[in-house]
TrEMBL record:
This is Uncharacterized protein. GO terms for molecular function: glycosyltransferase activity. PANTHER family: D-INOSITOL 3-PHOSPHATE GLYCOSYLTRANSFERASE, GLYCOSYLTRANSFERASE. The keyword GTP-binding does not apply. The keyword Transferase applies. It comes from the Bacteria. The lineage of its organism: Bacteria, Pseudomonadati, Pseudomonadota, Alphaproteobacteria, Rhodobacterales. Residues 26-191, 223-379 form the Glycosyl transferase family domain. Keywords: Glycosyltransferase, Transferase. Pfam families: Glyco_trans_4_3 (PF12000), Glycos_transf_1 (PF00534).
Length: 405
């Protein structure tokens, strides 16, 4: 079975599934956008191709950006597909593409017999479709920007054999006519790798903490309001004044992945350090780390905070639960889909800093109750999202799709 994964940014959520397929005898190829063409093959036999596309220079006030970027990306991808077909005779049995950036728009035109699955993460809208109500006022430019961002996403529905979405909440953002075609297919979590370790300690060359330290953790790609970082830091400032027996570790880049960009020398981390009265000696902020070190942070955590506005759920949430973290999550729809309050985690109003600090304090003081919630969280992920189960079901699904093609 030959499968081609398409994504704008590296393997992202396809990484573990692609590797599992390669290790189970599939011929796996991955293609993504990069500054210059390249062609490499790793130890698992996964071939990675990179094709040039425009730099990501989006501007908040440029409503034409999404379509222009998608058009140029689609052209680069189409040129690559044509070269693979004409020069190598390559015809994948399946293509699985992360949509919205134009990368999969011509798959069926180049390979008409190939089965094509479009992976949808988000639909940009100001409408709550289930209640037929607008959520918030928007400027004409913002309204138009959303409509244009959705055009490449909607265009996938006329060529894809199947349309996947990882969570029910994310699917709920699509208009009913499109949502009816979406299948909820979880990404899967490697629970063998992301597992608890009661003996885990923070002992790196970049940070060392005493063995029995109460540790509050926060780990995401960027520091930004959409993931509740400013609210988290306000709670840390409050809690530091209440007790002196805990350390806080933040693992993230001080950059914005989602939402309006800041100036190059600005960041929400810098703003928090400037605005809040924080004990810097007990606050440790570090950039992204290798996965093994990131896992050790989760395993050593006493309380792990995951906040988000209603948006795409980070796969780090399920990874933290699989690692046995006590997750304190925002009481928002994407988190409620995964966490049951006081059963598999703790839900708080992330805008209420006193409530957040109070619940972190409670976690530190109630290790027995917390241990039960941690165990429930991992059990929940093992039951619904464990990679071996999810990947085997996906592989069987894909084989059946090709066989019935």
């Amino acid at each position: 079975m030959r499968i081609l994964f398409l994504h704008r940014n590296q393997p992202a959520q396809f990484e573990f599934f692609a590797r599992w397929l390669a290790q189970n005898g599939w011929q796996v190829t991955f293609a993504h956008v990069g500054p210059a063409p390249s062609d490499t093959t790793d130890a698992d036999g996964i071939r990675t191709l990179r094709f040039p596309a425009p730099p990501d220079e989006r501007r908040a006030d440029d409503y034409r950006y999404a379509l222009d970027y998608a058009a140029q990306t689609a052209l680069g991808a189409t040129q690559l597909f044509t070269q693979l077909r004409e020069l190598e005779g390559y015809h994948p049995d399946l293509v699985l593409a992360h949509v919205g950036w134009g990368i999969g728009l011509t798959v069926r035109q180049i390979w008409p017999a190939t089965r094509y699955i479009a992976y949808h993460e988000w639909y940009y809208t100001d409408v709550d479709w289930d209640r037929s109500k607008r959520e918030r006022p928007m400027t004409p430019e913002a309204l138009l920007t959303n409509r244009l961002r959705n055009l490449p996403i909607s265009a996938e529905f006329d060529s894809a054999d199947r349309n996947w979405c990882p969570t029910g909440f994310q699917a709920s953002r699509f208009p009913p006519a499109l949502r009816a075609r979406l299948e909820i297919v979880p990404d899967g979590v490697d629970c063998g790798f992301h597992r608890p370790d009661p003996e885990a300690r923070i002992d790196f060359d970049w940070l060392r903490l005493p063995g029995r330290t109460k540790l509050l953790t926060y780990a995401t790609r960027g520091l930004e309001p959409l993931r509740g970082f400013p609210q988290f830091m306000r709670a840390v400032a409050l809690l530091q004044k209440r007790r002196a027996d805990f350390e806080t570790l933040v693992v993230a880049q001080d950059s914005v992945s989602y939402g309006p960009r800041l100036a190059e020398d600005d960041g929400w981390g810098k703003r928090a350090l400037k605005a809040l009265d924080l004990d810097r000696g007990r606050l440790h902020m570090h950039g992204l780390k290798p996965r093994a070190e990131y896992l050790r942070v989760l395993q050593a955590s006493s309380a792990h905070v995951y906040f988000t506005e209603p948006f795409v759920t980070s796969w780090s949430l399920l990874e933290a639960m699989a690692a046995g973290c006590l997750v304190i999550g925002s009481h928002t729809a994407p988190v409620r889909e995964v966490i049951e309050d006081m059963q598999t985690g703790i839900l708080v109003d992330m805008d209420e800093s006193d409530e957040v600090a109070e619940m972190i304090d409670w976690v530190f003081e109630h290790p027995a109750e917390v241990a039960a919630i941690r165990a429930n969280a991992r059990a929940h992920v093992l039951e619904r999202f464990e990679a071996g189960k999810v990947f085997a079901r996906k592989a069987a699904y894909l084989r059946a799709l090709v066989a019935g093609g």
